Amino acid sequence: MHPSVEAFALAAGLLALGAALVHRFGFPPLPIYLLTGLWVGGALPVEDLEPLPSLGLLLLLFSVGLEFGPDRLRSLSGKAVRAGFYDGLALPVGFFLGLMAGLDWRGAALLAGVIYVSSSAVIVKLIIDLRRAANPESEVVLGVLVLEDLVVALLLALLGGHGAWEVLGSLLLFSAYLAFARFLGPRLVRFMESLSDELVLLLGAGFTSGTALLFHGVGASEGVGAFLAGVIAATLGLRERLERLFGPVRDLGVALFFLVVGAGARDLFQGLTPAVVVLALLGLLVKLPLNHLGGTRAGLSRKRGLYSALYLVPRGEFNLVLGALAQAQGYPLVAQVAVLLVLVSIPLGALLIRFAPDIGRWLYPKGQRAKPAQAKAP
Amino acid sequence: MKVEEVVLPGVGRKYTVTVGSGDRIVIVVHSSGKRELQYFEAGEDEEPSAALDLTDEEARELGAILAGVLFHPEAVGDTQSKLGQKVIEWIRVLPGSQLAGRRVGELPLPQGAHLLAVDRPGAPLIPNPDPETVLEVGDTLVVAGTREAVEALKRSL
């Protein structure tokens, strides 16, 4: 028997146990996958689980591209763009922090990305699980996430290669994909509709991993490739279909992926330096006031603005992609900050979002609003 | 009634329906088919007074009841029936309406809208009324035509 079967059975059992435990308390399961990995990581034969976790991350980025691609920009409200502008101020702040920490411009740019980007996948799941979708702040938060994902995908394409040629290559590839989505996408929609579910599933899987390989080939991050594959699939009119077809496979892969991240973090903690902890903490703190300001500028009340800032705490998939890139390019400090941020921000963010109404009530006692209460219509 | 539609990436779509009284209902249609409803009283935009979750099936059933599929209230004179791109509309002549006392020939019928009949309570239906017929309060005009023309007529009244 292949050793992966044993590892898989063990991992799936542990994850199911963890998810069942938190489900009782009305808590989302994602942070538990991380913590389970952290807890039992030493005893778990993590390598045997491959390639499921790696594919899980690619599929996760694929579905983020599917839902948060640039075609969503058109339906974005002015509110979200305003909030996204203030959110984007985290980039220069992160860059400055990186320079202060003694990194060169490339390392500082990677750190800026790590601090800037929140996790669309985690936040969407938390919003749905905690029943916050109808709230006004969710609309703003989700719009901000669309902008963040686009900016970080561009950043990854820019920072992917080492030499000027590689950067140019990945940028060209990036633009070629976006141009393909823009000009050829609409014409292929009808053709894609005629394909069977099974064919779409296989084509989607081949397309995602193939694009990831292609981007890896030109020296860029394979994560951007998977993200762009999702963007293309969305413009081909396959959004709902692929969500439905890939959903369960992705959820399984993502659960295993977060387990492996948790397990891998044990090594990280052994090499933890104060600089890493300080940078991660600053990264967590710097976005809170920016997003609070952005939220209120987007027309939310101060309380709802606070909620929106809390919603944007969790970091996830793109942080790990940026971290892997930083590690490969010789910036272990940035890689450690990225992973530490994910580990801390997901459980913390889940708690903050869960108890956001209580925090809001405590900070802004009833009746206090950003704008004066309007007179009741007669 | 005002309806605002917003796309929530990764979640679905959000509809904010503001009715005449100023009360609002926020409806989130999830990609999974689930519906979330929140009710806000007029003037209140912070905390919903009530919330309701529906499965896809429940939402459709509720929608059918609201649309009057199961029971069509008699009291409503103003209804539309769809025939592809054409519509039939029943327009009631209310007390104080500018229509009362006017002749059919004077009706400002836009291009593409036709008066099929006048339904007068307690009298036989007047099909294809001649231009000299005088409208009374309580009459119901049966108008058919393209949607734009019928909507234009309704607005002009």
TrEMBL record, chain B:
- Which Pfam families does the entry link to? KhtT_N, TrkA_C
Which InterPro entries would you find in this protein's record?
AAE_transporter, KhtT, KhtT-like_N, RCK_C, RCK_C_sf
What's the superkingdom here?
Bacteria
Q: Residues in domain RCK C-terminal?
A: 74-157
Q: Name one GO biological process term.
A: potassium ion transport
Q: Which GO terms describe its molecular function?
A: monoatomic cation transmembrane transporter activity
Name the record gives this protein: Potassium transporter TrkA
**Organism, as annotated:** Thermus tengchongensis
